[in-house]
Amino acid sequence: MKNGIEIRWHGRGGQGAKTAALLLADVAFKTGKHVQGFPEYGPERMGAPITAYNRISSDVIRVHSNIYDPDFVAVADENFWEKACEWQKKGWTIALHGLHHELHFHEPRGYYQLSHSSKTEWAGKSSTEQYEMLKQGYQILKEHGLTPTCFFAPCHTYDEATVKAIALMKTEGCPMYISDGYALHPYQRDGVYFLPTLFDTPHKLPMQGIYTFVYHPNNMQEQDFAYLEDFLKKYASLFRSADEIMEKYDSVKNQGILGKIIEHAIYFLRGIKGSKE
Questions:
Q1: Residue 246: exposure state from Cβ atoms within 10 A (0-12, 13-18, ≥19)
Q2: For the chain, give me the number of helices (H) and strands (E)?
Q3: Where residue 230 falls among pLDDT bands split at 50, 70, 90?
Q4: Taking the model in full, what pTM does it have?
Q5: pLDDT in tens, 11-41
Q6: pLDDT tens, residue by residue, 171-191
Q7: What is the DSSP letter of 115?
Q8: CB 73 within 8 A of CB 54
Q9: DSSP assignment, residue 16?
Q10: CATH top-level class for 4-75?
Q11: Who contacts 211 (Cβ-Cβ below 8 Å, separation ≥6)?
Q12: What mean pLDDT, rounded, does the chain reach?
């Protein structure tokens, strides 16, 4: 944003991230600046994830949206790293989800572009640049006692250069599989393993398969949490940890013709759905 700054706050309900954003907006307004200060959250309850935003400018602010490429990021959860280490001890899979989560626009194209979104942190950059980003993100997590075994790109957008960079990380003793792709079983492509992600809400397919679903708690309502809880209880015996699955499929072969057909069919159908919406 020209002649201004954008700030994104991360915290949990009750930690004051929303209040801090509104106070900052109030103070900046009293100094004569044009400001925005607003929160984004799902259910209003203690401990629920919350994101808040500030725009401060000398000019009139005509943008009205969330902030995807902030100048500053403030994290209110001071015990985050300790909590993450506890999650890892309990068997949770730690994933590398971008580096800064700074998104730019890139025309979706290429065999690895599994999302129709034009927002990406990775696609369009060289494999060398992406490798350096991966290495930096991996090192940050390691410095805090975490070992990422999985890569999950923001907005599901990455490209062939991303896969090459992850393959290079593997040769240097930092193996990671990609949690993405449309398929019914894990598969390998260009030396990198893929754990399919088919849905953004919990679903059980009528046929057998191994796949994941992804969701964002900060965008969920109370009924969404209730549905997820019921789903987990009903199908608890069918769940496995991601790392456990990928260890089993360590020698998995390439996707095959049928797998590629399924992948492209789902991609095509999602594109039609997205254009209608």
A1: buried
A2: 7, 13
A3: very high
A4: 0.74
A5: 877 788 889 999 999 999 999 999 999 988 6
A6: 999 999 999 888 888 888 888
A7: S
A8: no
A9: S
A10: alpha beta
A11: 183, 184, 185, 195, 196, 197, 198, 199, 205
A12: 84
Alpha helical stretches, state H, 52-126: 80-89
N-to-C CA span, the chain: 29
| SS3 labels along 165-234 | HHHHHHHCCCCCEEECCCCCCCEEECCEEEECEEECCCCCCCCCCCCEECCCHHHCCHHHHHHHHHHHHH
pLDDT tens sequence across 101-141: 777 887 765 545 555 577 889 988 999 999 999 999 999 99
Closest among 158, 154, 167, 177 to 111, alpha carbons compared: 158
- Are the CB atoms for 210 and 227 separated by under 8 Å? no
- List the domain boundaries for the chain: 4-75, 80-276
| Contact criterion met (CB below 8 Å) for 215 and 200 | yes
Q: Which residue has the tokens 């994104």?
A: 8
Which residue bears the tokens 């991303």?
Answer: 162
